[in-house]
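Handoff note, outgoing to incoming analyst
You'll be picking up this chain. Sequence as last confirmed:
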Amino acid sequence: MQSHSLHSSAPQVSTPQSYPSIEDLGPHYRMYDAAFAQNPHAVYQRMRAGGRSLVPVLLAEDVPATLVIGYDTAKQILNDDDRFPADPRTWQKTLPDRHPLRPMMEYRPNPLRTTGDVHGRYRKALNAGLAVIDLHYVRAAAERTAIPLINSFCGDGSADLISQYLAPFFISVLTTDIMGCPPELVDSVLTATVAMFDTDATVDVEAMLGSALGALMDSKRHLPADTDVTAHLVHTATDLSNEEKQHQLVTLLTAGIEVPRNHAANTILLMLTDPRYRPNQEGFAPLVTDAMVENLTTDPPMANYCITYPRARTLIDGVWLPANQPVVISMAAANNDPKLRRDTDSDWDYGGGNGWHLGRGAGRHHCPKMAYQSSDLIVGEAIGQLYDAIPDMQLAVPREHLTWRPGPFHRALTALPVVFAPTSPLPVLWPSVRP
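Most recent structure output, in case you need it:
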């Protein structure tokens, strides 16, 4: 009888114990420093070594997390609320009260930080408030805001488009025209919102938000419910407490200023530096919306977010993830997953829907339709008005000299300096105000 080696034909069977934990996969990539901010796509490429879809990262020096860079794995997690809920309350007990990541990650009674029936209740209230937005009025308000801002620098021959144009533009359109913030409250509401991104005094941030948004809500109590988004929320969301209503406003403010401002700036940068978006010999250039959707797909302004916290130690894609630790979806990396195949290089979903890309999230926490429709309209108006007035803009510095704001979540320029031939101010033709 012929003997057989013990190792020759025994099948290799994977067991739960044979899979690695995310903590063992190292190195932990730092997502909070300037090096990551300057070139995150190079870091994503290094993360893909070995075909990984999940990598260990640090959101801050003392905050480990899992970053999801594979498209299929991201879609699986975003559509699995049972195993990957968005509620961070167990995790945040380990985070110091004044930690700089608290404002962006801690629990809030809003759709982003809840799951199940509670999530449905908050999302219903938010959608009802968004439903009062009149897109025709918003378009007119965007033009009314853009023209004076452009006139303030068009004769100079140079400008920083973020500080002189985009920042004040989006602040005005969102706070004044959509949320109905009275002029005397704009500064306090804005200060509280900016503090969420830029300060480590978390307790003060919450106090500032509560005071500013409480005053905003009080200003609506004697106005009709259909006046603006805030008034509608105050009068119709009867099953929400005042604190819960305030946190829906926090969601609108943070998503409605920071994200579209960065979307507009990054799209302008794409149009300034990519030959495909320059006018041809006949003077025709690709549509602004084409550039907007391409940017939202390949380099989204909210690059890494949609955070979930597994209820228990969870096996996914051959890796064990710890319970109650952040799992962050990289929309930027997942959308650029080399395993994806599209029909053409320009298949960016020009129809305006969410399509295949994750720039607006996916699953139950995807961006509400009216939120992204109004955001797209405002971003398009901001860019379109600017190019109509100053079509010959060029970057004032080489692209590689631009700097990006550090942070694990956003893709945000610190400045966007341009030069151009000085032009005469545009005529101010004020559109009608809200009836």
